[in-house]
Write a structure and sequence with these properties.
single chain; about 280 residues; alpha/beta; Purple Acid Phosphatase, chain A, domain 2; 5-stranded mixed beta sheet; 5 helices; 11 strands; globular; binds manganese (II) ion
């Protein structure tokens, strides 16, 4: 079984994951683990030995691990998306659904300026996924106006809260993104990944399952932050399951099933999406 998690935000002062071993119950029986972005906070305070330790933790427990990039870990790998189940499932972090990636960020003006400079420099059509991924990951590497997320003191928490909730433009922008992501993901999938029946994203930290008209089912896996928490996605041969991630004294574990989505037979032969031969 292939399991998708996202937004662990390891090393961030507010993630509920304080020790990697808390994650062990989520890895039992998993053949392929897909970490769909923002696995760790790489832009401040992560040493290369901490980074090696976390990669090793997963690789010791799961036969195959796929690290997909997010805006907080833009250099964790060169993988920005995954098409799985013969092209029926599209997995990507989700920031590329928004023209300015993280519209709720306090440093949104800097993000906008970096994007504008790259678009003016002729990176290509901004509607194209390859262009989006390239610009998004370069911007994430170049951002400098970032709050301190990794210091665990009351002063640092207060500064973070102030920077996150004031001015209130920021929480309002975040709620707009909660509202807009399912429709944006549906539109993007229809254009760029028309064979996808299921789209799995994280990024906005708002877990849920949506379907707009005849579009694909959009799943958001939330995060490991309070208060909304997260969901996991399990991919089987003929269906997808969404389950709540529950937390207890033993750490995090798969909880109750929230949705079960049957997969249509894979598209093979003439008319199948180019490049997505069945595994
Ligand atoms: Mn993100």
């Amino acid at each position: 079984m292939l399991r998708i998690l996202s937004d662990l935000h390891l090393f961030d002062a507010r993630t509920r994951v304080r020790d990697l071993r808390q994650l062990a119950p989520l890895l039992v029986g998993v053949q392929t683990l897909v970490l769909n972005g923002d696995t760790c906070e790489m832009r401040r305070g992560v040493t290369s030995s901490e980074f090696d330790e976390l990669k090793e933790f997963f690789r010791q427990r799961v036969p195959e691990v796929v690290f997909i990039t997010g805006n907080h870990d833009p250099v964790i790998s060169d993988t920005h998306e995954l098409m799985t189940a013969s092209g029926r499932i599209w997995v990507t972090h989700g920031d590329i659904c928004f023209d300015d990636f993280t519209p709720w960020a306090r440093h949104a003006p800097q993000i906008k300026a970096l994007i504008a400079a790259k678009r003016a420099a002729g990176y290509g059509d901004y509607r194209q996924l390859a262009v989006r991924y390239r610009i998004a990951r370069e911007v994430a590497r170049e951002e400098t106006d970032l709050p301190d997320r990794t210091t665990r003191t009351w002063g640092a928490h207060l500064a973070w809260a102030w920077h996150t909730f004031f001015p209130p433009r920021q929480p309002l922008a975040m709620m707009r993104c909660w509202r807009d992501l399912p429709a944006a993901a549906t539109a993007f999938a229809r254009e760029q990944r028309p064979g996808a029946q299921v789209v799995v994203m994280g990024h906005v930290h708002f877990p849920g399952v949506w379907r707009h008209g005849s579009g694909p089912t959009v799943i958001n896996t939330g995060s490991f932050f309070r208060p909304l928490g997260g969901n996991l996605v399990d991919v089987f041969a003929d269906h997808v399951e969404v389950r709540r991630i529950q937390s207890g004294t033993a750490g995090f574990a798969p909880g109750r099933q929230l949705a079960r989505i049957p997969l249509r037979p894979p598209m093979v032969g003439p008319g199948a999406p180019a490049g997505y031969a069945p595994a």
